[in-house]
């Protein structure tokens, strides 16, 4: 039989702690060895015991999770931290992952997701709440679309796009690049279509976003 995964819970809301205990009490491979509502008691216990996984609330009374995580990893470099939070924010997620935590799960999660998250970080893998995975995927799609938009412009189109963004009109661009007025009009139409913009102001914003 597998040795149970030893859990610490760090959360200053008794109802949350009670709910977590209820969700995990029937799990054969997870055992809660400590639950703490304040950071001082938790850190003292951490020096005496070695939990496999720490469920860490982001917002606590003395120190926030982003302040506690580095302290935890200094005391126990091999600790597996699973952030527990109400914040479905990609900024918080990315911040905590950069600090070395291995999981980020919302307090609204299901029992199955919670158990999977604990097992995942215990295996030294990263777990992200499914609701946030969708947000990450959407952001990735937007980023990919922006990159594609920029790459889909030819060098000449990028050059004309930059001049348009600087306020040059079609005639001025034609003189600047020694090309015909109608040629500039055709380029302009293609640029607007590729970047999905309908005005110079939209083009300026898109150019800044893409770094054209």
Question: Layout of helices and strands, plus pairs?
Answer:
Blueprint: E1 5-10, H1 14-24, E2 30-36, H2 39-48, E3 53-57, H3 65-75, E4 80-85, H4 90-99, E5 103-106, H5 111-122, E6 127-128, H6 130-152, H7 155-165, H8 170-177, H9 181-195, H10 200-210
Q: What's this entry about, in short?
A:
The chain is α/β, with parallel strands linked by helices. The chain contains 10 helices and 6 strands, in the order E-H-E-H-E-H-E-H-E-H-E-H-H-H-H-H. A 6-stranded parallel sheet has the order 2-1-3-4-5-6, with helices on both faces.
**How many beta strands in the DSSP annotation?**
6
Highest CATH level, the class of the largest domain: Alpha Beta
CATH topology of the largest domain: Rossmann fold
Query: Number of domains in the coordinates?
Result: 2
- CATH homologous superfamily name of the largest domain? Response regulator
- Output the number of helix runs: 10
Question: Could you spell the SSE succession in H and E letters?
Answer: EHEHEHEHEHEHHHHH
Radius of gyration, in Å, reads 26 Å
- In helices, the fraction of residues equals 55-70%
- Oligomer kind: single chain
Global geometry: elongated
